[in-house]
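Reviewer comment 2.1 asked that we show a complete input and output for one of the modelled complexes. We chose the manganese (II) ion case, as it is the one discussed in the main text.
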Amino acid sequence: MSFSQDGPKFMSSERLSGFTEGEKIAIFGACYDGTTSFRPGTRRGPDAIRNASYGLETYSPEQNKELEVFLDLGNLDEVFGAPKIAHENVYHGTMEVIENGLVPFMLGGEHSLTPPSVQAVFEKHPTLFVVQFDAHADLRHEYLGEKDSHACAMRRVLDFLAGEDLLQVGIRSGTQAEFEELRSSKRLVSPDAKLFEKRLEKFKGRPVYISVDLDIFDPAIFPGTGTPEPGGIFWKDFAQLLACLQGFEIVGMDVMELSPQLDLSGCSSVLAAKVVREMLILSQ
Ligand SMILES: [Mn+2]
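Response of the prediction step:
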């Protein structure tokens, strides 16, 4: 496993050759989509986000803050086929970032890469709680014979994280069994800022990992993803939900499932880049 230094870098981040002093957050890309069941292509997500970031300002009107300097490590080595090696790379890459005193911020790639990233962060921060923004429950025990499928992402997180330490926001697709579990476990949160803020009260003072599956957005504004699901949120909803996490110590993040070639307008990549910018500013 190694980070490549080639290719475009996110926004105003300097082209840096490795870990340096002064930054708090380190971005890295994870270009893997090997378990994608419907429409592949998220392996091209990280660089599409970086390219789209050049069209964005570094100032967020919503947060009234300017983007500060951060590190962009490039992408993890690209692997193909079974997920085992890709997941190991993500785990070790995340751990390397943490051990250098930085907050890991992964750009996907498919959502199956989230569990190894969360696991590395959890080992460092055992009082961690996780917020998943997603259209899908991702609670299958296995999918098409693969327990590390992107349809099982949150099930794999629950292999090590206690159920009450996960909030699943915006879920609108899953099996009946998944929804029965979501409802009875009280992990399901409507994508409504007031409700979300209330649910966050009991987590005050604890470190958080934020995982964004971009298919939480409505396909009307975000068609560039493998499993689009009608009935999603819009930009303002997301900005308001994100604002609820102000004041929390953010110790890990990811933005997953952009599949740029499925959106000929390129606007999905722009939305993804804006999500990344807002999360960077929130956590800096
Ligand atoms: Mn999803």
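The domain at 25-283 is CATH 3.40.800.10 (Arginase; Chain A). We note this here for comparison with the apo prediction described in Section 3.2.
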